[in-house]
Amino acid sequence: MSGVLYILDTEVPKLLARQQAQREEELGQSQRHILALQEEIEELERENRLHSQQEAMLKEEVRKMERMQKREGVDMTYLKNVILKLLETGEVEALLPVIGMLLQFSPEEIQKCHQAYHSSTEVPPSPSNDAPGSTARSLFSRFSFS
After folding, report:
1. What burial letters (b/e) apply to 62-99, b meaning 16+ CB within 10 Å?
2. Rounded to the nearest 10 degrees, how much is the dihedral formed by the CA atoms of 68, 98, 56, 115?
3. pLDDT digits (tens, 9 = 90+) for 102-121
4. Nearest residue to 63 (alpha-carbon basis) of 97, 107, 113
């Protein structure tokens, strides 16, 4: 019986040590696999963000091309008359949407026009505005023709 106890005392710890070493090796492999998967996820997320940016750029380019194509069919005489009316009367709020539609302005371009108009109306009138024959609302008064 003492021989069996001797074997149990010496062989069982060796067996348990081998099992523990094998488990630690499996754990290390699993951890390396997890890290590799996390890196792959990060790379795929970067690619996804890049694709989203490219998609947004392409959509904007398509919208720009559609606006350009629509501009090709604009009646230039009508556009000329609308611009003249705008310059003569200064009715920006009424005529800017018409010009924007004819020229297929983007929402950003419409906003820039509105901002430019509102900032120019905040400028104090120049002495040329008081000249005979000029109307207070005419946009021609903002230009000097020499």
Report:
1. eeeeeeeeeeeeeeeeeeeebeeebbeebebeebbebb
2. 120
3. 888 999 999 999 898 888 77
4. 107
